[in-house]
Design goal:
The complex is a heterotrimer of chains A (about 800), B (about 160) and C (about 280).
Chain A (H helix, E strand, L loop, with lengths): L7 H8 L11 H5 L15 E7 L5 E7 L1 H5 L3 E5 L1 H4 L6 E3 L5 E3 L5 E2 L5 E7 L2 H10 L1 E6 L6 H4 L30 E8 L1 H9 L3 E12 L8 E7 L4 E6 L4 H12 L6 E4 L15 H13 L3 E4 L2 H7 L2 E13 L5 E11 L28 E9 L6 E3 L7 H19 L3 H8 L8 E2 L5 E2 L4 H11 L2 H16 L5 E11 L11 E2 L2 E2 L2 E7 L5 E5 L8 H13 L6 E5 L16 H28 L6 E4 L2 E4 L2 E7 H10 L10 E6 L8 E11 L4 E12 L6 H20 L31 E4 L17 H18 L13 H10 L5
Parallel strand pairs in A: 1-14, 12-13, 15-18, 16-17, 25-26, 32-33
Antiparallel strand pairs in A: 1-7, 2-6, 2-8, 3-7, 4-5, 9-17, 10-15, 11-12, 11-14, 15-16, 19-20, 21-31, 22-23, 24-25, 24-30, 27-28, 28-29, 31-32
Helix pairs in contact in A: 11-19, 15-16, 16-17, 18-19
Chain B lengths: L4 E7 L2 E7 L5 H8 L18 E4 L2 E4 L5 H4 L3 E3 L12 H8 L9 H14 L5 H7 L11 H21 L1
Parallel strand pairs in B: 1-5
Antiparallel strand pairs in B: 1-2, 3-4, 3-5
Helix pairs in contact in B: 3-6
Chain C lengths: L6 E3 L4 H11 L3 E4 L5 H6 L7 E4 L9 E3 L3 E5 L4 H6 L1 H6 L1 H7 L5 H6 L2 H6 L7 H7 L3 E6 L2 E6 L4 E3 L2 E2 L6 E8 L4 E7 L9 E10 L2 E10 L6 E2 L1 H7 L6 H14 L10 H21 L2
Parallel strand pairs in C: 1-3, 2-3
Antiparallel strand pairs in C: 4-5, 5-10, 6-7, 6-10, 8-9, 11-12, 12-13, 13-14
Helix pairs in contact in C: 9-10, 10-11
The chains are: A alpha+beta (about 800), B alpha+beta (about 160), C alpha+beta (about 280).
InterPro entries (chain B): 2Fe-2S-bd, 2Fe-2S-bd_dom_sf, 2Fe-2S_ferredoxin-like_sf, 2Fe-2S_ferredoxin-type, Beta-grasp_dom_sf, Diverse_Oxidoreductases
Protein name (chain B): Carbon monoxide dehydrogenase, small subunit
GO molecular function (chain B): 2 iron, 2 sulfur cluster binding; metal ion binding; oxidoreductase activity
Chain lengths: ~800, ~160, ~280
């Protein structure tokens, strides 16, 4: 083969491997309208299914009359719980050890709950059929407050009451009350309480992380197609974890896994909304089996917001103790977690409150105690982790608010208070008081860099002047400086303590090199916009020396992809990325032997250099990876099988811990409650950076979702359990007009245990962004006595804060 | 089910004739009847803009139009804006500047951006954000979308100047 | 989000429209741009067995600027309003308000007629037209009549237009003086948390006329005669503005919703009105 004389730098550049802003291979189809999303799928004879849904939040089902619906032209069937019961499918297991009704079984527990499934020739007939189903309800008392639910005689779930009337045990142990789900504890209660009780300074605060929703632009849906001839079920769907869905569908349907093919095609955003299984999936499968035709279900936006997995809804009370000088000595956190009608969290089995126990945050806190009580209410079931690792948004919000409250208690600058409490670089790997071992970090460097970049002292001086001007009546605008220094815990996770429904949270990569030097790699993850087809090829390019442009990355088809636990909680790079590197190294190891054979030297006499193996000390003697690839198919090498393939199932030894330093400057119109974001600076450390362009895009997107959550995006209920924010009229999604430009920056502190030192980054901006935006608002009012105000900070709530502080007089 | 009527619309330069109920929303006509699946559905209340097409020179949310209203009209979707042999500068710019992630808003985004640049060939950043406020994105935070549109505008203006 | 079935009519002239309205009464409704009606139909909150599409009916798409009045056809879109430079010269408040309605796509389809005829308290044009003392031309089987905007709105979704009448045009006396349309909203595309339309005329240093109308603070738009009077004869100083705000607050009756509680809305209404008055005054 002809070898042009290219420099080593050029060879590296040509690979488009790790570290370069490779343009995305996905963009060709998306910019031309040739994506393949679930609702684009059309099969011969395909039917359409949709739900009759309860208008009531809590009611008995007295009767369901489907006769009129069945008369509607085009309607073929109407399924109710009675039809699913003989199959044992009227209930299904959740990913949190609970069970959930697929169709209302005797009663409904939240507004919008699925009552019947109408199957018709198209969605128009289905809609008409839904109107014609007559359901008789008997309204029951509604519980929307988890604290009241824990005191109430009203039994939400009859299955939580034992025969003798006492609360039955739940999936995670005994219940305190029939509406109680679990108690989960972490840390040391005795020592922590003692430390706090005897501390010089204690700050206590109660805060509510409001219920919100991931709201990806594409709603959830599926197409189920039972091939009766071959006995094989194919299920396309919006699945962030296709293999897990296959296993779950197999377990509940009785169809063996080898006869189930689950395909996640292009997905229009996930953000956690598409991890779990929904009644729509089950009903579509049943309807396909019953009718012998493919059945499609695509939910409306209202269905999505009102009934699919919400996020957050954590009532948190914190106590943080410190010395007079500001050194934190202890932390206590209690959470009342509102799970709605069913605990449909997608958490690893042993963690019913996810990784809430990262709530000591970035600070060196010697002792801590966390307890979480899960509670049922008449709201939609959940909650999932919306653009975060499990419950990490809640944990980080909690600690980043507690540190601000402590700063107020100590009358200290909040940036300085953080600095003196950061875990020091030399303390890593750091064993946190609530159990996790943080892999690496250099918080002080990041913090100093961030504060310098925004001229923090200058901002505080400007703010002080603004307060004076406000008091003198010269301005009606207050200035807020929002700070956030977050440590995330992502990359679930080590099999020994992370499993979902018993499936260990490893992940996988399988690579096959073709004779002419290109390759295909399949992973157990599934992109919903993160650009895996682009970035995982970059990892491989650097590992195996073939150009990224010559590597196809495939995900999402369970018939061909190796088993994995999917993409959520920023786990793809930490786990599947590691598997990719390890599989790449197996390829390289075999390539080394082939190269040695071709060069007629010992295995140890060749070394890898960018895209080739060279003889040590004789660099003019080399074989490129392309030549080696062909040789794998062409040569009969003693002791070496033909072909060039490898697979790696990677069980991570630990989670990874990306971190970041964010600063937000806001100007707030005190009279209208309208905030203006003047500046947002985000420094992220995700370890090794695979594609800076994609990282920047993730930061922009995550910060924008943070802005939305902090400044108004909520799922709100009234006292009767009616959803007040069920459409995009009231569910706040900012447009391009409401969103600022972001400044992004970075440091690099690789993960010591990850094969390429990468930590993952997709969700960091959301986790760190929410407290940053919230702190900016709260900081603006701090000089006037604000200690803590709950989110969301929409106009009227900001106005209310100002009003209650007397700023309108 | 209502009675079906006869309709004729032009989509991406091709005339389509069919029978449909008047209540059929144009987005479904495009996606399900004509297999033009570029425009997407993202909401129920005409907010998100994922369904945006161009009709007789106007940017329109096709989820808020009955096929009956569209009878006789000339419709352009993303598929009519550019393809593998003739990419529109917006399509190349969105790739160059990472103006998309999951791709779901992208057809509507680019279709609207094309019309915006016809309205205003040299928009400021503020004018772009205002002019694109009918299209919601959940992934990008809009910053790179704005960058992509500015880059496309610059390229299109340079090409126009060169041609003159 | 699938609407119920209906019969669709696209008559070529007003006579055709009226005859369908006569024939089907309550079961028939006209549609202009459809961006108020179709979302309601998709949610099955509006049942329209007979839908009359006005798009082929001529004579309603013009903007005619006369010497002392402006006539805007009911089918003129928000986009047309914004795009018309002569109109922006003659009545700049219209462009200013239209730019704050909805988003670009909706503005291409949303019509002036649709915005004023519905009786939706959230719409911006009703209050604006009251501020401008517009009259609406309404056509029925008995012929044409003119209804002043200030007398048109009775309650939410209830107006002086009979079910078998069609609003065909809006006539505005040529506006005088300084203008402002000030609107607070949660985001682009939202209805107003509070909005104020102000036209104000200065002679020397004194206000000689002021017209003030408020939006989405009641079940109808609120033309506040008292608020306008509070400015007349003054130099529109702080005291006068405060008096106008107080008078306006007596005329509105906001309800609590997702935008906020009553106290908030009242406060913001006052702030918005102040800003509108100050800006309009600065433009005199």
């Amino acid at each position: 083969m002809k070898d042009e004389v290219t420099s080593r730098e050029e060879r590296i550049e040509n690979l488009k491997g790790m570290g370069c802003s490779r343009k995305r291979v996905e963009d060709a189809r998306f910019t031309q309208g040739k994506g393949n999303y679930v609702d684009d799928i059309k099969l011969d004879g395909m039917l359409f299914g949709d739900f009759v849904r309860s208008p009531y939040a809590h009611a008995k089902i007295v009767n369901i009359d489907t006769s009129a619906a069945l008369e509607v032209p085009g309607v073929l069937a109407v399924l109710t719980a009675k039809d699913l019961e003989p199959l044992g499918l009227h209930w299904m297991p959740t990913l949190a050890g609970d069970k959930q009704m697929v169709l209302a079984d005797g009663k409904v527990l939240f507004q919008g709950q699925e009552v019947a499934f109408v199957v018709a020739v198209d969605r128009y007939a289905a809609a008409d059929g839904i109107e014609a189903v007559e359901v008789e309800y008997e309204e029951l008392e509604v519980l929307v407050d988890p604290f009241k639910a824990m005191q109430s005689d009203v039994v939400l779930r009859p299955d939580t009451v034992a025969e003798d009337g006492s609360p039955a045990d739940g999936a995670h142990g005994p219940r305190k009350h029939h509406n109680h789900i679990f108690t989960w504890e972490a840390g040391d209660k005795g020592p922590t309480f003692e430390t706090i009780d005897n501390a010089e300074v204690v700050a206590e605060e109660t805060m509510y992380y409001h219920r919100t929703h991931p709201c990806p632009l594409e709603t959830c849906g599926c197409v189920a197609s039972m091939d009766k001839v071959n006995g094989k079920l194919t299920l396309w769907g919006t699945f962030q974890a296709p293999h897990a869905i296959r296993t779950v569908v197999s377990l509940i349907s009785g169809i063996e896994e080898h006869n189930i093919r689950v395909i996640s095609p292009d997905i229009g955003g996930g953000f956690g909304n598409k991890v779990g299984a929904y009644p729509g999936y089950v009903c579509s499968v049943v309807a396909s089996i019953v009718t012998g035709k493919p059945v499609k279900w695509i939910e409306d936006r209202m269905d999505n917001l009102m009934t699919t997995a919400f996020a957050r809804d954590y009532h948190m009370t914190g106590r943080i103790s410190a010395t007079k000088e500001g050194k934190i000595t202890g932390l206590h956190c209690h959470v009342t977690a509102d799970h709605g009608g069913f605990d449909a969290c997608a958490d690893p089995t042993k963690f019913p409150a996810g990784f809430m126990n990262i709530c000591t945050g970035s600070y060196d806190i010697p002792t801590a105690f966390l307890e979480v009580d899960g509670v049922y209410t008449n709201k939609a079931p959940g909650g999932v982790s919306y653009r975060c690792s499990f419950r990490v948004t809640e944990a980080v919000y909690f600690i980043e608010r507690m540190i601000e409250v402590l700063a107020i208690e100590l009358n200290m600058d909040a940036a300085e208070l953080r600095r003196i409490n950061f875990i020091k670089k030399e303390q890593f790997p750091y064993k946190a008081a609530l159990g996790w071992e943080y892999d690496s970090g250099d918080y002080h460097t990041a913090w100093d860099k961030a504060l310098k970049a925004v001229d923090y002292d200058g901002l505080r001086a400007e703010q002080a002047q603004r307060v004076e001007d406000f008091k003198a009546g010269k301005t009606r605008s207050l200035m807020g400086i929002g700070l956030s220094f977050f440590t995330e815990i992502v990359g679930a996770g080590p099999v020994k303590n992370c499993d979902i429904l018993g499936l260990g949270m490893f992940d996988s990569c399988e690579i096959r090199i073709h004779p002419t030097g290109s390759a295909i790699a399949r992973l157990g993850t599934i992109s919903q916009g993160q650009g895996h087809a682009t970035t995982f090829a970059q990892i491989l390019a650097s590992e195996i020396g073939l150009p990224a442009d010559s590597i196809t990355i495939e995900e999402g088809d369970t018939d061909t992809a190796p088993y994995g636990l999917g993409t959520y909680g920023s786990r793809s790079t930490p786990v599947a990325g590691a598997a990719t590197a390890m599989a790449g190294r197996k390829i390289r190891a075999k390539a080394q032997m082939i190269a040695a054979y071709l060069l007629e030297v010992h295995d140890d006499d060749v070394e890898f250099d960018v895209d080739r193996f060279v003889v040590k000390g004789a660099p003019e003697k080399f074989k490129t990876m392309k030549e080696i690839a062909f040789a794998a198919y062409n040569q009969a090498i003693p002791g070496i099988e033909p072909g060039l393939e490898a697979v790696s199932y990677y069980d991570p030894p630990n989670m990874t811990y990306p971190f970041g330093a964010y600063v937000c400057v806001m100007d707030i119109d005190v009279d209208t409650g309208v905030p203006e974001i003047r500046r947002f600076y985000a420094l992220d450390d995700c370890g090794t950076r695979i594609n800076p362009m994609i990282i920047e895009g993730q930061i922009h997107g995550g910060l924008t979702e943070a802005l939305a959550v902090a400044l108004g995006q909520e799922i709100a209920y009234d006292d009767m359990g009616n959803v007040k924010t069920g459409t995009l009229m009231d569910f706040f999604l900012p447009t391009a007009w409401e969103v600022p430009n972001y400044e992004t920056d970075y440091t690099v502190t690789p993960s010591p245990h990850h094969p390429i030192g990468a930590k993952g980054v997709g969700e960091s901006p959301h986790v760190g962004g929410v407290p940053c935006f919230s702190n900016a608002i709260q900081d603006a009012f701090r000089p006037f006595g604000n200690r803590h105000t709950n989110m969301p900070h929409d106009h009227w709530r900001i106005w209310k804060t100002a009003n209650e502080l007397g700023l309108h007089d | 089910m209502g009675k079906k009527q006869h309709y004729k619309i032009t989509v991406n330069g091709k005339e389509e004739e069919f029978l449909a109920e008047p209540r059929e929303l144009l987005i479904y006509t495009l996606r399900e009847r004509l297999n033009i699946t570029g425009p997407h559905i993202g909401c129920d209340t005409s907010h998100c803009g994922a369904c945006t097409v161009t009709i007789d020179g106007k940017s329109v949310k096709s989820c808020t139009m009955f096929v009956a209203q569209a009878d006789g009209k000339d419709i352009t979707t993303i598929e009519g804006i550019g393809g593998p042999d003739n990419l529109h500068p917006l399509q190349t710019a969105f790739k160059e500047h990472h103006g998309l992630q999951c791709g779901y808003c992208t057809p509507g985004m680019i279709t609207r951006a094309k019309k915006l640049l016809e309205e205003n060939p040299n928009p400021t950043e503020e004018e772009i954000r205002f002019g694109m406020a009918g299209n919601i994105c959940r992934c990008t935070g809009y910053q790179n979308i704005v960058k992509s549109i500015r880059a496309a505008a610059a390229e299109m203006n340079a090409a126009k100047e060169a041609a003159e | 989000m699938i609407p119920a079935a209906f019969e669709y009519h696209r008559p070529k002239d007003m006579a055709g429209v009226l005859s369908i309205l006569q024939e089907h009464g309550d079961d028939a409704r006209v549609m202009a741009g459809g961006h108020s009606l179709i979302p309601m139909m998709k949610l099955r909150m509006a049942e329209v067995p007979h839908l009359i599409d006005l798009q082929d009916v001529g004579g309603m798409s013009d903007i005619e600027i006369g010497s002392d009045s402006i006539r805007i056809g009911a089918m003129v879109t928000q986009h047309d309003i914004i795009d018309n430079d002569a109109l922006a010269q003659a009545a700049p408040i219209l462009r200013e308000a239209a730019l704050q309605i909805a988003d670009p796509q909706v503005r291409y389809m949303g019509t002036v007629g649709g915005n004023v005829a519905n009786g939706d308290p959230g719409n911006d044009m009703p209050g604006l037209m009251q501020c401008l003392n517009a009259t609406f031309t309404v056509v029925g089987s008995d012929g044409e009549r003119e209804i002043p905007a200030r007398e048109f709105y009775e309650a939410a979704y209830m107006t002086a237009r009979e079910d078998d009448e069609v609003l065909t045009a809006v006539t505005i006396p040529m506006p005088q003086g300084g203008h402002a349309y000030e609107k607070q909203k949660r985001k682009i595309g939202d209805y107003a948390t509070a909005a104020a339309a102000v036209q104000i005329v200065k002679d020397g240093a004194t206000c000689v006329s002021a017209s003030i109308a408020m939006t989405n603070l009641s079940d109808t738009p609120v033309y506040s005669e008292a608020a306008g009077s509070a400015l007349v004869g003054t130099s529109v100083d702080d005291a006068a503005i405060k008096a106008a705000m107080a008078a306006m607050l007596d005329d509105i009756d906001p309800t609590e919703d997702n935008r906020g509680p009553v106290a908030f809305k009242k406060h913001v209404a006052g702030v918005i009105l102040r800003r509108a008055i100050e800006r309009a005054w600065s433009r005199t």
